[in-house]
Structure to design on (136 residues):
């Protein structure tokens, strides 16, 4: 597990932008069963999270359409919450970072690590904005 002083600034990059930090399995279950659209970011300490995922996700929210609910869990820190979240991401294998969009509790769009790694934040944002246009 990563130390708190390392993780908190990375969490803050999303929570300071309105994301709910889901630290327990119960919080994950409650968040993902909400009506409307819910964005779930499985955050991470890796370079692609810092360089593409977090900035791309934040930038994706500047368009006209956006999810009703913004949520995040942190891999390597909120273990039980991440495990609970990953149960909702089947058939996708565990990866972090990753970004999932749910509509009325159903997974409708997924960006796995291999979609994030090596891509600029703008490409991540554009991918998510296209999903928002379709589902939000």
């Amino acid at each position: 597990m990563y130390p708190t002083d390392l993780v908190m600034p990375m969490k803050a990059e999303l929570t300071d932008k309105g994301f709910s930090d889901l630290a327990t399995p119960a919080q994950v279950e409650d968040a993902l069963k909400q009506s409307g659209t819910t964005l779930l970011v499985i955050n991470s300490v890796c370079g692609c999270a810092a360089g593409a995922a977090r900035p791309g996700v934040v930038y994706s929210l500047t368009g006209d359409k956006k999810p009703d609910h913004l949520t995040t869990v942190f891999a390597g820190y909120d273990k039980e919450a991440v495990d609970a979240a990953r149960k909702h991401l089947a058939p996708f294998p565990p990866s972090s970072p990753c970004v999932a969009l749910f509509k009325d509790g159903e997974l409708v769009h997924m960006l796995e690590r291999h979609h994030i790694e090596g891509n600029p934040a703008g490409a991540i944002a554009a991918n998510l904005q296209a999903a928002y246009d379709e589902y939000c």
